[in-house]
Amino acid sequence: MTRAQAALVGLVVLWAAPACRKPAPVDGAATDAAGTSSVSSPAVTHGAAANPPSAATLPCRVIGITGKVSALIVGTTPGHGGAPLLYPGADVPSSTWLDLGEAAKITAKDPRTTRETTFFGPALIRACVHQEEESWIASGSFESAPGAGETLGAEEWVISPFGVVRYGAAGLTLIVSAKEGVVTKATLRLDRGTAYLATARDAHAAPWKVTPLHPPDSGDPKADDAGADAGSNDGDAASWARIDAPTQVVLTFAQTDATANARAAAALADCQRAATTAKSIAVSLAEPNAPVGALTARHVTARRLAHVTCAVAELRAAALPHGEQGALLESVREATARWKSAAP
After folding, report:
1. Torsions phi, psi for 3 (to 5 deg)
2. What pLDDT band is residue 74 in, cutting at 50, 70 and 90?
3. 194-217 tens-digit pLDDT
4. Which tens digits make up the pLDDT trace of 18-50?
């Protein structure tokens, strides 16, 4: 087990559709690579038929799983994580880290866009984070295929130790490589479509020149510029680099001798500054005679920046050994709650 895998406490071993335990039928489940048969549609109760859930509230579903997949839950007693059994048709545990063994694979499908995301082991990942189209890859491989229900603005965000890539209708692969348990690089391959890449402050992208995200140093929205509008696809080169297929980008750390703890602490500092700025702009918006138009645009950008920096910070902190992650994780989650509470 690598350092990253040992970091997350509460190991519950999950196997793909065990023969001794037949899963409840789930509509739309697909046959996986191991030959698990498709399952039929379930019987619908009277209450469910009267009030069927909308696609906007449905969780992602597992549509294929092979090999050994383990649920790693922070802050739980080993063996008592309460993680659900994974099988084709099961809900994807959106708040749980998954450890994929050698040659393991799991595919998730979003009910809103029908986009499919596949993770290949060995890997340490989170899928459909907070039931959103967001995937976290601490190590391992990720592959995404466009769905038939994608709409304008329906983006997938992929978080890695090096930053974030976001895209709509695109096909891409991201491989986060580790050597002896230490992450060394990430390779992003865009096969079709367009994606946007934002690197962390201490990361480097080649061959593309990508400007790292630099959160402002103070929380004064009148003194600091929260950056270009990351919500648009144009005019935001200060934060995001546009990548058009076919392209391959290699991401590395600018300082190869920095420790994982130092990188997590640096990411936390960026997260805290970005969260403070987002909160400050929200407070300014509530003031009498506030320039609402200008501040609203900056607030959207500041929240997007806080989202990026805090997700990278939490991913790095969670991948540390258990004894080293506690204070950092607590701090980054406090910062995350701060920017999320700064809602318009």
Report:
1. -60, -40
2. low
3. 999 999 999 988 865 444 544 444
4. 333 333 333 333 333 333 333 222 333 333 334
User: Using CA atoms, how far apart are residues 301 and 232, in angstroms rounded to an integer?
Assistant: 10
List of residues 6+ apart from 154 with CB closer than 8 A: 112, 113, 133, 168
Cα 232 to Cα 152, 163, 167, 246, 257: the distances in Å are 12, 18, 12, 22, 36
Q: What is the pLDDT of residues 82-112, one digit of tens each?
A: 455 788 988 988 788 999 999 999 999 988 8
The answer to whether 67 and 104 are in contact (CB under 8 A) is: yes
Residues contacting residue 35 through CB under 8 Å, at least 6 positions apart? none
CB 264 within 8 A of CB 313: yes
DSSP H/E element including 166 = strand 163-167
Q: Exposure of 228 by Cβ count < 10 A (0-12 exposed, 13-18 middle, 19+ buried)?
A: middle
Phi, psi angles (nearest 5°) of residue 77: -70, 135
Residue 6 host element (H or E): helix 3-7
- Give the C-alpha distances (Å, rounded to integers) separating 324 from 73, 184, 318: 16, 20, 9
Give yes or no for a contact between 142 and 195, defined as CB atoms under 8 angstroms apart.
no
Work out the burial of residue 226: count CB atoms within 10 Å of its CB; fewer than 13 is exposed, 13-18 middle, 19 or more buried. Answer: buried
Global pTM?
0.74
